[in-house]
Batch of 2 targets.
Target 1
Amino acid sequence: MSGTDHFQWGDGRRYYSYNAFMKARYGGRVQKLPVDAGFTCPNRDGTRGTGGCSYCLNKAFNPSYCTPVKSIAEQLREGMSFHLHHNRNIKGYIAYFQAFSNTYAPVEHLRALHGEALNVPDIVGITIATRPDCLGSDILDYLQELSEQTHLCVEVGVESCRDETLRRIHRGHDFACSQHAIGQLHARGIECGVHLIFGLPGENPGQWLEDVHKVNALPMQHIKFHQLQIIKGTVMEREYLEHPIDFHHFTLTEYAAFVTDYLSELRPDIAVERFASAVPPRYTATSGWHGVKYDAVVKAVEQRLDKNGSYQGKNYSL
Ligand code: SF4
């Protein structure tokens, strides 16, 4: 801590929050607005695979106003009016290309979509979620160009550092592919976020804590953690019903304790964007966290950090 009130990221929170990261850049709150641009995914269309990742049901993660039937501009305007209604102190909005693999298209198509988004008033940047194997050199060249025009972040779905798990969930890429893609983004000066899932089959909390050093070695700026939520109708639901013992489930209290331990090992300059996912209960096959609001997860983690006198990076060393 520098002084009595602030950690190195500039506020009194015991972890480096994404809000602090964005506030340092924009001087206030910036809201991400998810859009669905009608992409598919190479793990679904036969290029890498046909069934998709075993846990994937994209509509479970998409807000209802996001549909490719509407233009990007329409989706963004609807998202803005929703947020304006709830929070008037927003400094700007980020167009968040979230559904499926948002770099899986020719460069000219991407350029048109991003141009449409950036023409909407109050859009101050773009975040693109994608797979690490959808970042070929033509796409990277284009993204570098885009990052020189606007605030760009590329979110890479890493999900696990373990190849055995990545094979089991049918990701269609290995961890080395994620390391390479994130290295390429870094080399081109493109901001990068990483997505990880805690709870994939065959893994356990001890392994996630062992793997933090691999996560710390990725040259990225922010991270999202999701607890696995098993979605109805997915291949993973069947697998869970057949082999429930292979899945580690957390109660909220256990999860807060685990995240506290994880944060103490995490590099302190990585901003944490999310601690958990919030899939509507109608989609989930297991009942564990039904009704738990995301704010309650954040509160539980913060209370645990406080109780333990811990903070992000407390045990981190190079
Ligand atoms: S890469 Fe993403 S969109 Fe494609 S199948 Fe996996 S989770 Fe679904």
Target 2
Amino acid sequence: MTDIYGLTLKKLADKLTELGEKPSRADIIFPAVYGELARSFDGLPLKQETLCTLAENFSFGGPECIEKLVSETADKYLFRLSDGNTIESVLMKHEFGYNVCVSTQVGCNMGCRFCASGRLKKVRDLTVSEMVGQLIHIRRDIGTRLGGISVMGIGEPLENLANVLDFIDIAQYPKGFDIGIKHITLSTCGLVPGIYKLADSSAPVNLAVSLHAPDDALRRTIMPSANKYALNDIIAAARYYSEKNNRRVTFEYVMLDGVNDSDECAARLAELISGLNCYVNIIRYNPTDGSPFSCSPHERIMSFYDILKKHGIGVTMRRELGASVNAACGQLRAASLGG
Ligand code: SF4
């Protein structure tokens, strides 16, 4: 059996050809699976023989939702995969629509010290079906269309790029989720080769790079991946991405009290990224149990913000969504594992 949620339109057409069916049948199957969210092939306008072939060769996979936490601004879903591992997704309820934050790996090996997911080591990459299944379940649950996707749940998506690209391909299908490329954001902790690969791929999504420090020495103390990739190389890759795809890159910066939030840090950050088509997204830290960090005070955050502005850098501040439903990535899963 082939899991239908794991196939792009092109791959489904190829599989149908392999089964002796017309590849154009994919254009009937895809709208039913992703537009109408069909759970079987029953009722599709196809010959009985074809329906039997489909039923014999394709399954509807996707993860099983085992817990949901609801708040006014964000709902969190915990899913169990077929091998018993668990992952989570967050539905963010913005004024302008719904956005789903999807996970791309079981656990994460990047080890960012401020992140709950970093404490749960990577077990494996998610399959395309396991990523698509997160959207399918949430789309059914809310009964309305999704406005956007953030590929910034648990995991480093650039470590699982081939599957992530297929997932993005399926999410964009016009008669399905129909999520435009400009409404899909992928966040990386700065894996330089992956940024170049994504830049040269057919999916020029919005790129968000987690910087969190204006120099390598400080960055290494909070993000182990900084030992492998230097800031100058990350900035060069981000510049390439921006110029190749004519996109503004986002730099994520979480405010950690007394660690990376000084006026000097702000000035050095401005210098580091000056001249790039970018903006900085300042994130208030949402502390997790056992975290050695706390969020910078409001006045400190505002001072940091003002300095970036004075240097001509575009800045936004992320609204804290879903703090009451453990919305820092990895927290629900950590809680379910007793972490
Ligand atoms: S912040 Fe992202 S990359 Fe870093 S440990 Fe957490 S999930 Fe992994």
